[in-house]
Amino acid sequence: MATRHPYLLVLQLTTLFCFSHSLDSDGGFSVELIHRDSTKSPFYNPFETPFQRLSKAFQRSMNRVNRFYPHSKALSNAPQADIISNQGEYLMRYSIGTPPIEILGIADTGSDLIWSQCKPCDDCYNQTNPIFDPSNSTTYKSIPCNTRVCESLVQSSCAKTTNEYSTCEYSMSYGDGSYSIGGLAFDTLTLGSTSGSQISFPNISIGCGHNNHGTFDSNGSGIVGLGGGSVSLPSQIGPSTGFKFSYCLIPFMYSNNTTSKINFGQTALVSGPGTVSTPIVQGPIETFYYLTLEGISVGRKRLDFVNGKSKVVEEGNIIIDSGTFLTFLPEDLYLELESEVASQMNLPRVRTEVLNLCYKAPGNKIEGPTITAHFGGADVELNTANTFVSVSDGVACLAFAAAESNGAIYGNLAQANYLVGYDMQNKVVSFKPTDCSKV
């Protein structure tokens, strides 16, 4: 029996919009998700080896833990606190304005606000592509202070313009010292679907960043928030898409020449043989998608995920995230998992500086026990491609780690080759085994 995980109450303000666009014939559409290390990404560095890219993905994973489980309790009600900028794994192309200007942003289930650099720049970081100029958009409208969308942002304030018109300003502070400050506005957002059609959504609230500084990459511009808050992309286009989206992630080492997909509307439905579903649990921060992990099995050996004091399963004890590569567990559970996996392996163990449990893997191939994640009502079976990763030539490691914060994150390697669907209205996440290279 699961018990309710204690959480702070966060007021969720829903903003409704009217949309004028054309969905695909089946009532939905799909958009490319570009892995930041694929050859199609502007972040791609041809001089890096696959293992160097992997090492950076590990570091990004470690950095992202703090955004979900901040060490300071005072920051626990601020969805954007302790975010490490530019650390997501997947990119989305979209356009804003009329006429539309193409933007490349980081797609992030751990953020809500959609923001991009904008002119005039008080202090913008160097950006390769043209910076969006709102004065050239006929559909750009600054958002007043006394609106729900402004009040829904934790880090917002009011700015008086020359005509005494109070407009909404946002301020995003990041854990590495980076920041974005600008105005909140409505404008048309256009997505290019994989069918070739352009789908436009008027009156989408976006952040127009005029003062942005830190470790942002010059090849990108801002973030596309896919979180559960009211200003995220899925929430804002939800009235037209049924508040549904899904994605199918191609495994990291095979994503060089193929893009993953993110689906909206009817195209996002996850159903059919092999589909399992688990509830989304309300947690301390409305942005994040909290699930309940009841335990993990290694082969036939089950390890229960229980609270150390009460010895019961807490609801909402793990966050599912598309931008974290590894899967993180509380230290006690991780050590149990590591010990059990090690007891079922018959390969020579190797020490590395990257991850704890590593083995010799001739030809970078490894056979290990099946690991099953037991979510509430949904058993998700993981094969070695989801649970082990090659860290150097002939060495593979268990792709799990202990979280210093004692939190838990279900990372994207564990989600690879699964169609993962989010039904935000019915509060359900679904999983279906799928060859994502063929979707």
What does this structure look like?
The chain has 439 residues and is mainly beta. It folds into two domains: 28-263, Acid Proteases (Cathepsin D, subunit A, domain 1), CATH 2.40.70.10; 270-433, Beta Barrel (Cathepsin D, subunit A, domain 1). 12% of the residues lie in helices and 34% in strands. The longest helix has 19 residues, at 50-68. It is globular and about 70 Å long. The two termini are 37 Å apart.
Which fold name is given in CATH as the topology of the largest domain? Cathepsin D, subunit A, domain 1
- Individual helix count: 7
Which percent band covers the strand fraction? Answer: 25-35%
CATH superfamily of the largest domain: Acid Proteases
The CATH architecture of the largest domain is: Beta Barrel
Q: Termini distance?
A: 37 Å
Average pLDDT:
82
Q: How many extended strands? A: 28
What is the CA-atom radius of gyration, in angstroms?
21 Å
Counting structural domains, the number is 2
Please give the largest β-sheet.
15 strands, mixed
Q: Please tell me what the overall shape is.
A: globular
Q: Indicate the CATH class of the largest domain.
A: Mainly Beta
> Which regions have little confidence, pLDDT < 50, spanning 5+ residues?
1-22, 71-87
Helix content: 10-25%
Structural class: mainly beta
Secondary-structure blueprint of this entry?
Layout: E1 28-35, H1 50-68, E2 90-96, E3 101-108, E4 115-117, E5 141-142, H2 148-151, E6 156-160, E7 166-173, E8 179-192, E9 198-213, E10 223-225, H3 233-236, H4 238-241, E11 244-248, E12 260-265, E13 276-279, E14 289-291, E15 293-298, E16 301-304, E17 318-320, E18 327-330, H5 331-343, E19 349-350, E20 358-360, E21 371-375, E22 378-382, H6 384-387, E23 388-392, E24 395-398, E25 400-403, E26 409-410, H7 412-415, E27 418-423, E28 428-433
Parallel strand pairs: 3-10, 4-9, 17-26, 18-25
Antiparallel strand pairs: 1-2, 1-12, 2-3, 2-8, 5-8, 6-7, 7-8, 8-9, 11-12, 11-27, 13-28, 14-17, 15-16, 15-21, 19-20, 20-24, 21-22, 23-24, 27-28
